[in-house]
């Protein structure tokens, strides 16, 4: 790949892949940026003999990794991961993240929590002053209790509805439904994280607090980084 052809998302993906070492267990994220990372790992395996085991954060990234010839292990066989690399929808100055446009929040947060290092790959369009600035907060709910959860989330100031998918509803790979909820600009992500964690029936939500080790930001053909 020539330097001229590399966009900001690819650039951060290459930057992260250069930090992957032999014999690591590497968590694979979901989305267009994570796909560049997966492709680069596959290239390094093919051309440089990089020896790694990968674990995917979604059905989509499982399929892509399989097609590219990466060695995958199921999440249920692991208790520790060396490195997880994924994109994000928003990143705050305090390194809080908003994730979940891909609907698979449980696996993404499990990998982020279980990993020794979690690298987040973004371009500068993802940088925000506060979480929830550009996107609603995705909240994965058990289908049988979605209305009770919606009411609880409304009681803490949320507004929104179930995420649609065509004529139907978006469903995670575990069969959860997704609520997309907006909140008053006054509420900070840490408080919201705590409040959502306390609501029964929420399987997981898209605020990732205190989980990222490093944010790699692609901007003006450079990669800058923010470290924990
Ligand atoms: C999926 C995610 C993605 O990482 C996030 O949506 C960013 O996607 P992209 O790299 O395509 O901009 O959280 O659940």
List the helices and strands and how they pair.
Blueprint: H1 8-17, E1 25-28, H2 32-48, E2 53-56, H3 59-67, E3 81-87, E4 90-91, E5 97-98, H4 105-114, E6 115-123, E7 137-141, H5 146-155, E8 159-162, E9 164-165, E10 168-169, E11 177-182, H6 189-197, E12 202-205, E13 207-208, E14 214-219, E15 222-227
Parallel strand pairs: 1-2, 1-3, 3-6, 6-14
Antiparallel strand pairs: 4-5, 5-13, 7-11, 7-12, 8-11, 9-10, 14-15
Helix pairs in contact: 1-2
Structure explained in plain terms:
There is one protein chain. This protein has helices at 8-17, 32-48, 59-67, 105-114, 146-155, 189-197, and strands at 25-28, 53-56, 81-87, 90-91, 97-98, 115-123, 137-141, 159-162, 164-165, 168-169, 177-182, 202-205, 207-208, 214-219, 222-227. The protein is of the alpha/beta class. The chain has 2 domains: 3-127 and 209-227, 3-Layer(aba) Sandwich (Rossmann fold), CATH 3.40.50.1360; 137-203, ACT domain (Alpha-Beta Plaits, 2-Layer Sandwich), CATH 3.30.70.260. The strands form 4 sheets. It has a 6-stranded mixed beta sheet with strand order 2-1-3-6-14-15. The protein has a 4-stranded antiparallel beta sheet with strand order 8-11-7-12. The chain has a 3-stranded antiparallel beta sheet with strand order 4-5-13, with helices on one face. The protein starts with 7 loop residues before the first helix and ends with a strand. The mean pLDDT is 95. Ribulose-5-phosphate (5RP) binds next to α2 and β3.
């Amino acid at each position: 790949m020539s330097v001229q052809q590399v966009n900001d998302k690819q650039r951060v993906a290459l930057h992260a892949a250069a930090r992957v070492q032999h014999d690591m267990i590497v968590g694979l994220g979901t989305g267009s940026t994570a796909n560049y990372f997966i492709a680069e790992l596959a290239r390094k395996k093919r051309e440089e003999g990089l020896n790694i085991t990968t674990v995917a954060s979604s059905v989509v990234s499982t399929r892509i990794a399989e097609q590219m010839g990466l060695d995958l292990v199921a999440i249920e066989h692991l208790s520790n991961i060396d490195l997880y690399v994924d994109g994000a929808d928003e990143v705050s100055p305090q390194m809080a993240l908003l994730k979940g446009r891909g609907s698979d929040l449980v696996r993404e947060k499990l990998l982020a929590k279980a990993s020794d290092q979690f690298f987040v790959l973004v371009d500068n369009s993802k940088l925000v002053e506060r979480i929830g600035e550009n996107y609603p907060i995705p909240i994965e709910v058990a289908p049988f209790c979605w209305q009770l959860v919606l009411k609880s989330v409304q009681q803490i100031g949320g507004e929104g509805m179930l995420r649609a998918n065509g004529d139907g509803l978006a469903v995670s790979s575990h069969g959860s439904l997704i609520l997309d909820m907006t909140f008053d600009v006054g509420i900070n992500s840490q408080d919201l994280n705590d409040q959502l964690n306390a609501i029964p029936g929420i399987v997981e939500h898209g605020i990732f607090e205190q989980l990222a080790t490093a944010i790699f930001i692609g901007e003006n053909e450079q990669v800058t980084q923010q470290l924990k």
